[in-house]
Write a structure and sequence with these properties.
With 301 residues, this protein is α+β, with helices and mostly antiparallel strands. 54% of the residues lie in helices and 16% in strands. The strands form three sheets. A five-stranded mixed sheet has the order 2-4-5-9-8, covered by helices on one side. Strands 1-3 form a two-stranded antiparallel ribbon. A hairpin with a 2-residue loop joins strand 4 and strand 5 (215-222). It is elongated and about 130 Å long. The relative contact order is 0.09.
């Protein structure tokens, strides 16, 4: 066909048709990309929902497990208290003053145990909900460690254990950190209590202080039973079976102290790290900002 003989109106219509077809094709391609993008987004959303559903189911299982454990931990001291009180009521007047005092003291100890457990549960709930703010100040970390070692000295002697404070250069007794003194004391208290509980007579428990990467590094090291490798991942989780421990007398502990310690360390921009060899001992460590380096940092617990 000779284009010269084609009316200009037809040529204009042909050009418009080509332009409309090109625009339609472009819109189709654009719509296809949009649909593919939405399909990808829906697939990601589906995966996210599936992961959230699995996480929720795991959380529900953990909560059920926690409820069972806490119910047991609460029931034990309550039953003991009730038993001694009922015994006092039944045998009132037939017991000597010394016997009555002994029963009352035993019931009081169980009440204290119950109070501590409830307080730990409340504190852990606040920490997990982000409702606890660290009140930071400058203080000597060596002095705090020494005070806590003195607190545990009578128990260590009773268990036949040696306590020590190892301050590794350039860390000195004068080294100061910027942290919440009461919360850090609680962490060290929990770690020391746990170390003493799992170290047999003749062993050693030490608090080690060092400087690492511009921060004060604290470690509680023992020569105790150690932790099996398959239990290490859950040792600081309040829901994990590994967080439950037994004393030499086979009494159980909820393990909430370690879970609380983990969250407290998180408030200070650090995390608890554990190294252990079964049968050879355990070392649990964390870092604190030095007093001259108070740049705020936070790591999710």
């Amino acid at each position: 066909m000779d284009l010269d003989t084609v009316p200009s109106e037809w040529l204009a219509l042909l050009g418009l048709t080509v332009a409309l077809l090109s625009l339609a094709l472009w819109r189709v391609l654009q719509l296809q990309r949009l649909l593919l993008g939405r399909e990808d987004a829906l697939e990601r959303e589906r995966q996210a929902h599936a992961e959230a559903r699995e996480a929720l189911q795991a959380l529900q299982r953990q909560r059920h497990e926690l409820l069972a454990r806490v119910s047991h931990d609460l029931r034990t001291p309550l039953a003991s208290m009730q038993g001694y009180v009922e015994l006092l009521l039944v045998r009132h007047g037939s017991l000597s003053a010394a016997e009555e005092r002994n029963y009352l003291q035993t019931a009081a100890r169980q009440g204290e145990k119950l109070t501590r457990l409830l307080a730990d549960l409340f504190d852990l709930t606040r920490l997990e909900a982000g409702q606890w703010q660290a009140q930071k100040e400058d203080f000597s970390i060596a002095e705090l460690a020494q005070d806590l070692l003195q607190k545990f000295e009578p128990e260590a002697q009773q268990r036949g254990l040696r306590l020590a404070l190892d301050c590794q250069p350039p860390c000195t007794p004068a080294t100061r950190v910027h942290a919440d003194l009461a919360l850090v004391a609680r962490v060290l208290d929990s770690l020391l209590e746990n170390a003493l509980r799992h170290t047999p007579s003749g062993g050693r428990v030490a608090v080690e202080l060092a400087n690492a990467d511009g921060r004060a590094r604290l470690a509680v090291r023992d020569t105790g039973h150690g932790i099996a490798a398959d239990e290490l991942p859950g040792i600081f989780e309040r829901y994990e079976r590994a967080s439950r421990v037994r004393d030499a007398d086979h009494s159980e502990h909820a393990g909430l102290g370690l879970a609380i310690a983990r969250h407290i360390v998180g408030l200070h921009g650090s995390r608890l790290e554990v190294r252990s060899t079964e049968g050879a001992g355990t070392c649990v460590s964390f870092a604190l900002p030095l007093a001259e380096d108070i740049t705020p940092r936070r790591i999710a617990a």
